Amino acid sequence: MHIVKSLSFCFALLWVIVSTRVPAQQIPQLPQNQLVFDSTTQTIDFKWLGDSLQTPFEPYAAMLIPVRLKNCPTRFYMQFDLGAPNSMLYADKVRQIHKKYPTAITSTDTTKLIAFQFSLGTLQVLAKEIKVITHSKSLINWKNKNSITIIGTIGADLIDGRVIVIDYPAKKISIGKEVPARLMPLTLTDMTYAHRRILLPGQLQGKNLMMLFDTGSSAYELLTDRETARTLSSDTVAERNEVTSWGRKLIANTLPSSNLVEFSGITLPLAHVTYMEGVSSTQIAQMKRMGIGGMIGNRLFLTSTLVLDTRNRKFGLITNPK
Q: pLDDT of 143-191, one tens digit each?
C-alpha cells in the first residue's frame, strides 16, 4: 500500500542527512532526471482515491493525476508520490496497454521504456527513460470510461528544480519556474531538499523538528515513533489497523491529538498521530537523534495551499487562499 511504503523511505533518508560526513565516492547517486517538459506554468487537476479496505473508510488514500497516452483513447491515472524519487510504470498495465494499443506503448520491455510520451492534464511530458516495475495485477476495464486504472507513479522528478503549488481545496497542482504572482506576497521559509526528498521544518509542542513530506502518505497526519505519539495524545487507547508495506504486515496505531503544528508561520491543527508496530527501533532512534520528527502527508494540508520551490529550497503555506 503506497501510504505505508513511504515509511521505509523516511528511514532511507537518514543516509542523505549524514552524507556530508561520508566520502563522496561512497554516497549513492540518484539516476538522472529523465522527464522533459515545457517550463511554462501548467495546472493539473487531481482526484482522491478512497480506500474501502480500511476501517473506517479512508477518502484520501491516494492522490491521482489523470494520464493520457499517445494513440490511446482511454484515460488512466498515476499516483502522485513525492516519496518516490523517480517516476515509474507498472509492468502488468504496460503489458495490457501494449496488447490493445501497440502504438501507444510500442515496447515489450519489462524493465524500462525509452522515449515514452504521455500527458498529465495539459502538460506534455517526454520520459527519455522510465522504469517499469512489477506491481499488483488487475485487469483494465476497457469498457467502463469511469473506471480508475492506475498505471504507475509520478515521483519527485516531476518537481525537481521547479516550483509546485498544491491547492488542496481546489484539487489542483501547478508546476512552473516561479512562484505565481497571484500568491505574492508570500512568506517563504528554508527547507531541506536533498536527493529528491523534502524535509519541512516545523514546530510541535515548542520543539523544532524536521518532517519528511510525502504526497504518497495520505491516510495519516503524522507518522512518528510510539513515544512521541503517546506524548502528543491524552488517550491511551489507539485505533489499530493492519497495513502492508513491501509484503510485510505492520500495525498502524492511531491516537487522537489536540496539538498544533506550525509551518512557515502558519499553525495547523493536528487531530491524529500514528505510530507503526514492526518498524526497526534502531532506525527510529537514529531519526530522533537527528531531529526528524516523522513523516507528514496530504491530510495535514487538506484546507491549505502548499508551495514548494525545490530549486531555491524554499516553501510557503497559505490557509484560505484568495
A: 998 899 999 999 999 999 999 999 999 999 999 999 999 998 999 999 9
State which residues form the domain around 40: 32-158
Task: Report the chain's C-alpha Rg in angstroms.
Answer: 20
Cα(110)–Cα(196) distance, integer angstroms: 25
User: What is the signed CA dihedral for 56, 138, 135, 130, rounded to 10 degrees?
Assistant: -120
Give me the CATH number covering residue 306.
Answer: 2.40.70.10
Please classify residue 242 by burial: count the beta carbons closer than 10 Å to its beta carbon, then call 0-12 exposed, 13-18 middle and 19+ buried: exposed
What residue has cell string 479512508? 58
**216 and 298 fall within a common domain:** yes
> Pick from 173, 196, 174, 172: which is nearest to 313 by CA?
196
Same domain, 152 and 217: no
DSSP 209-252: EEEEE-TT--S-SEEE-HHHHHHT-S----EEEEEEETTEEEEE
**What cell was used for 75?**
484515460
- Sheet order of strands, 163-167 included: 42-45, 172-176, 163-167, 304-309, 314-319, 189-190
Tell which of 99, 127, 158 closes a domain. Answer: 158
pTM of the model: 0.89
Same domain, yes or no: 115 and 208: no
Do 204 and 111 share a domain, yes or no? no
d(CA 60, CA 63): 7
**Distance between CA atoms of 313 and 322, rounded to whole angstroms?**
24
